[in-house]
Amino acid sequence: MCQMSIMLDKKGQSEKIMENATQLEVTPDGVKINTLFEEPRLVPKAVVKKIDFMGGITTLAVEDASS
To answer: What is the extent of the structural domain holding 38?
Structure first.
């Protein structure tokens, strides 16, 4: 089984927001993240920026509302 760490890129700074993610779903409201033992989490207005399969890290970024 492949589990990923989820990072959130905020203005060039990365913050780990979840470990052991088992599923990501892109929705109109943002990115929904699931794990085995926690409630799903929605990161509003987020987009997938980068997936590092070898490192087991997915990086999200929040869309800038002013764009």
So the answer is: 4-62
What global pTM score does this model have?
Answer: 0.86
Q: Is residue 22 part of a domain?
A: yes
Each residue of 18-54: pLDDT tens digit?
999 999 999 999 999 999 999 999 999 999 999 999 9
pLDDT of residue 63: 72
- Cβ-proximal residues to 54 (8 Å cutoff; 6+ apart), any chain: none
Q: Are 38 and 46 in contact (CB under 8 A)?
A: no
Please provide the DSSP assignment of the chain as one string.
---EEEEEEETTEEEEEEEEEEEEEEETTEEEEEESSS--EEEETEEEEEEETTTTEEEEEEPPTT-
Q: Is residue 33 part of a domain?
A: yes
